[in-house]
Amino acid sequence: MSGLTEAKRIVVKLGSALVAGENGPDTAWLAAFAADLARLRARGQQVLVVSSGAVALGRRRLKMGRRALTLPEKQACAAAGQSALMRAWEEALEPHGISAAQVLLTRDDTEIRRRWLNAHATLSTLLDLGVVPVVNENDTVVTEEIRYGDNDRLAARVAQMIGADVLVLLSDIDGLYTADPRHDPAAQHMPRISQLTPQIEAMAGGANAAAGVGTGGMATKIAAARISQSAGCATVITLGRRPAPLAAIEAGELATVIAPSVSVAAAYKAWIAGSLAPAGALVVDAGAARALATGKSLLAAGVRAVEGRFGKGDAVVVADETGREIGRGIARYDSGDADRIRGLKSDAIEAVLGFTSGPLIHADDLALSPVVAPA
After folding, report:
1. pLDDT above 70: percentage of residues in the chain
2. CA–CA separation, 263 vs 283, rounded Å?
3. What is the pLDDT of residues 171-207, one digit of tens each?
4. What superfamily in CATH does domain 9-262 come from?
5. CA atoms of 81 and 62, how far apart (whole Å)
6. Domain 271-368: top CATH class
7. First-to-last CA distance in the chain?
8. Per-domain boundaries in the chain
9. How far apart are CA 238 and CA 236, in angstroms?
10. Which 8-state DSSP code applies to residue 168?
11. Cα–Cα distance, 282 to 300 (Å, whole number)
């Protein structure tokens, strides 16, 4: 089982060989894939696309031939090709009444906390509005030091960012094999992988190293799967060169499914609890402490003190009035605004600040300490 049918949020990564044809965008394949995507959208699923192809399309537009390109030449090709790529996606999705939105990211957008928050908010809003975000690396400005270099890992980081349930990596091969099936007739397909062991990674870097198109290969797909696995997201590697690859996955066609090691929610809470350095603290009263222990959000009314200086989106400690740490969470207000509204009921916040962002910390963004967390 791939989990694709049950998934709420899905990220699909497509390589250049699928998107770019000999004379421009492969409009026939894109149209068929758009119909496949629209089928998922019709049953209420949100789909984000990570699409390569800008450099390949720009290379043709600028008549750069097949020679190796310097970084500035790649950037020029990306600038020339990105508009063609987006036009192709818009034309493919338009017959289904679906809007596309261009989102260009660099590695810093998925690694630097504040930029991560901005990208997360933008992508989540687009998905909630019914738009299909089309994500690509911002090759026009990226340097060697801050580039991903392949969209497999970018797709995994985006899947992690939006809390996707499934990441689909469309390749030129239908999954991972024990050896290269193009040269070894005894090679066995691996339909499901629960743990990414050193042996699995060795297969990806050895016998399957050449599998995959563009700048990625099977090794980058396994590296992407490791990122997704730790984020609670399943990864599906399958053949992309067919009209409806998503329907093929659901029909049981050959694919490799790499199972997540935790749930999406558990991975996110573990990240809050263990990976973020707290920038301040919120001290809460006994009533708020009891409410948090039952899975409630932290409301301003229950906050007695605000300590430290922090911004919206920073991690903060939540402590009771004895100093005991209750948990850690992501603040929805900066420290100044939090101090102004502490003790206030929710319906009084807008009159003080001129806006409201809901609770100080939403329950989804709060990781409780083990001694507090409900059984």
Report:
1. 92
2. 30
3. 888 999 988 787 888 889 999 999 888 888 887 765 4
4. Acetylglutamate kinase-like (3.40.1160.10)
5. 9
6. mainly beta
7. 30
8. 9-262, 271-368
9. 6
10. E
11. 10
